[in-house]
Amino acid sequence: MRVVELGAIGGGRRDLVGGKAAGLAALIRLGERVPDGFCVTTEAYRGGEVPREEVLAAYERLGGGPVAVRSSATAEDLPHASFAGQQDSYLNVTGAEELLAAIRSCWDSLHGERAVAYREAAGVAHDGVRMAVVVQRMVDAEVAGVLFTANPVTGSRAETVIDAAPGLGTAVVDGAGAADHYVLGGGAGAERGCLSADRLKELEATGARLAGCLGAPQDVEWAYGGDGTLWLLQSRPITTLFPAPPASGEGTRLYVEFGHVQGMLRPATPMGMSTLKAMVAGMLASVGLAVEIVDIGGRLYGDLTDALRDPSTRRRLVKMMSVDFGPRAQRVVEHLLDDPRFAPRNSPRRRGTAALKAGPKAAAGILGALARPAKARAAVFGEIERLRQEPVVDPATAAELLALVEDESSTGIDAIIWPVVSGLVVSAALPPLLKGVASEDEIRTVLGGMPHNVTIEMDLALWQVARRAEPYRDRLLNTAPRELAAARLAGELPDFGLEDFLARYGNRSAAEVDVGVARWSEDPAPVFAMLANYLRVTDPEHAPDLRFEQAAARAEAMLAELALRARRAHRLRGRLAGFFLRRSRELAGLREAGKFAGLYALRDRRRRLLLIGAELHAQGLLSRADDVMFLTLPELRTAVAGGGDALGETVAARRATYDRELRRRTVPVALLSDGTDVETLLPPRTAHGAGLTGMGAASGRATGRARVVRDPARATLEPGEILVAPTTDPGWTPLFLTAGGLVTETGAVMAHGPTVAREYGIPAVICLPDATERIRTGQLITVDGAAGTVTVEEE
């Protein structure tokens, strides 16, 4: 079938007619008013010649005259990629030869520079894409434009946005001319410009109807003919929207993104999400906040509505955002304090009962660690070593394995948690104790080069592996990490200390808090990539162990100076400040220990889940063992019990969603329940001079070439380059050993990335919005960790 009428296209024929034609056919089936037309299918495209006789016969049935000739590729108008304007369209085409030429030009545009680049950015394979072409009768438009059933800028599903202009509307679609702009909903909207109030109302109702019938917010092209008839020219999903929060039915609510606290903006697997929800909820309960954790786009968001409305917690919430979640989250909460939707209201509080019960134990644990820090450290590392050497015992059946997976009991937690908390307490106490005596930058210097940090020890251990690997330098530098990982598995690599490293740290990875992510012990390719970066260090001054020692020396010198200053300023408070300064060097490095210890439980959980997955694969319920990570625990429970059918379609759909979300460049720090990205409502921040403004998180100043990295597993970082990343977690930190500085889009001062940056003595600026887009690899930039600025230097 090389030519088919639009009205004859059934559902599920995207492979034959492409995205645009499939969308138009869906509108026709819904009874919407669509200009008559036909589609030159992908079968004709595969043939390589425009089917002249069939096309001209269809054109004659339309009555000839002017038509619109528009691309309809199979990879067009997808839920995650619109391909808007990437392939060619032609309007007011008249006559047989002009029509045939326009169809050929649409075909050729499939492999144009714009379309190729867009497919690569969207992760769409080139070889599977085919082009169909839509031919429709031209509408003699009085006014035309586009309609979004959700606000594409703010994300609000409560608003409809319309751009309109007299005539064909090409100026609106192409962005080449001025258009009248309307935002409807939420009390907005006005009668002005080229659209009357009645037409605005009709368009708004049409958009709501389409979004409801098609199951997603829509981007609609429309035109009013000279007789006042509304014609729909296209409807496709709005691809730029972040997923909306789950419906709550309780008015406007606030959701704050929690994943970046763990240095994780990538989506979690469905199985990983269940673990993360429990972990974050427990963390918040320990500080007295009962917060519902929800999954939005595979990311962790906490519903902070009740805490924001509670008169006794709303101000404390602002401070907590600053310390634990960073300045972007803090600005959001401060902004919403004045929003009447979040006004204080007296209601029964949901108190953190766990925090209340833990009070005496917490006090004893913290005071004990402060009194005897060496004993506290010994207990922490003793428990970590016990967990590491604990024998692996797995039962034989899936049901027994699942019982262990669902058992969330833990042992030895007190030995770790209170020394870790004590380190956080003394670090947080330093700014108020040293107010008027020391600057924030000086306090951060004290927190640099910190001993007893398991992540720092891991990074320096990998540096030693790199030193031992020098005899194999050429092979490690010139072989792809995936190939090296395969060679190791085949026993074809010499042992230069990597096996010992993986035995101790192989349960780590980027996004390691997600049980669905492979560990380095399973896939050491990222470790080989990092080893290659270390082998590029040839200047002794860039040696990571030396840089760490220098940071530690600066910290000890600053500690002595600040302790002296504090005693001179106020004797009693000075003695207390000196005590806390010393204890910060003895305990603050333990902050990574709690998470590191928890990775052993995740390791065991992941192993057992994969064993269950292997059994379900053998039964034909899963295509492969690791598909189990794309199920929920209730679904897994049903499958293990022998209920349900093959889960292939469910897993495939979730993998596709997961892969799509992996490509998402930005994640909102806070959402309202209607999908509004709260940061879009804030007044713009004022930049200082020509610099980009974020938040200083590690002192110092460095100038170097920028290296934008979104995946540490494939990163190449030359010594001294400035690492620019969306976020960082401990799986990224080996890159810090060769970096000259760090810039991230999210974070908090006490989060993993900034903490490790301080301890290596490299300057860091965090919470610089869109840093990975505003800074390009190769640009010469200066990072000022004290001022919180990044300056692009002129060359």
Q: Any overview of this molecule?
A:
The chain is an alpha+beta fold and 795 residues long. Helix content is 44%, strand content 14%. The protein has 28 helices and 22 strands. The strands form four sheets. An eight-stranded mixed beta sheet has the order 15-22-21-17-18-19-20-16. Strands 1-2-5-3-4 form a five-stranded antiparallel beta sheet. Strand 19, helix 27 and strand 20 form a beta-alpha-beta unit. Helix 12 packs across helix 15. The longest helix has 26 residues. The chain starts with a strand and ends with a strand.
Counting H and I runs of at least 4 residues, what is the number of helices? 28
What is the average of the pLDDT values? 88
Provide the β-strand percentage band: 5-15%
Strand ordering within the main sheet: 15-22-21-17-18-19-20-16
Helix content: 40-55%
Structural class: alpha+beta
Q: Rounded to an integer, what's the Rg over CA atoms? A: 30 Å
Low-confidence stretches: 80-85
Largest sheet: 8 strands, mixed
Shape: globular
The N- and C-terminal alpha carbons lie at a distance of 59 Å
